[in-house]
Amino acid sequence: MKKPAKNIVPFLFLLLSFNWACSQAKPVIRKSYGYYSERLPGNIPADSNGNPLPGFGPDTTYTIYMETATADLGWDTAWVGEKTFSILAQRLPGRVIEAGMEKNRSQPAIIRAGKGTVLWRLDLIPQEPAPEKPGIPGRQIIIKVRKDKKQFEIHIDSLVELQVPPSV
């Protein structure tokens, strides 16, 4: 009669201890909140069918709020669709922030950071397209982040549109 149980027990013990050790690492990014708003630039030139001419549509601004486990992060680059953005990062002093008014629900977008976390505001500034990144589908945002000497990407799939105050 074979004794497979004796051979499996040490293997299972090593596997469980490895999984336990890996699960103890804290994630750097706890939560992310993506917002955008569209502003119309006044008179927009149109073709004979009434469609806006290329380059004259709404101006979209993106603001991302990140709740992180550390303040030692470098925010490099972001991509939305075919566009590349540099990042203007600002560490926020409080744990509660109002991002603006949600357009569809007409209620304030309030962010509450957890205890022991750092809250960041990331404003995306348009740049020339970078050839190393392909087009990102839809309104998904990819942000390249550095921590120490490691680089990683954050994917933000859901964005909330904020109301824009009237310009006149």
Descriptive account of the structure:
This protein has 168 residues and is mainly beta. It has one domain. It has one helix spanning 4-23, and strands spanning 29-39, 59-68, 74-80, 83-92, 96-101, 108-112, 118-127, 141-147, 150-156, 159-161. The chain has an 8-stranded mixed β-sheet, with no helix packed on it. A hairpin with a 6-residue loop joins strand 5 (96-101) and strand 6 (108-112). The longest helix has 20 residues, at 4-23.
Give the termini distance in whole angstroms: 88 Å
Beta strand count: 10
Radius of gyration: 22 Å
Q: How many independent structural domains?
A: 1
Biggest sheet, spatial arrangement of strands: 9-8-3-4-7-2-1-10
User: What is the N-to-C succession of helices and strands?
Assistant: HEEEEEEEEEE
Instruction: Give the count of helical stretches.
Output: 1
Largest sheet: 8 strands, mixed
> In which range does the helix fraction lie?
10-25%
How does the helix and strand content classify structurally?
A: mainly beta
Shape: globular
Please state the average pLDDT score.
80
Q: List segments where confidence is low: pLDDT < 50 over at least 5 consecutive residues.
A: 20-24
Beta-strand content estimate: over 45%
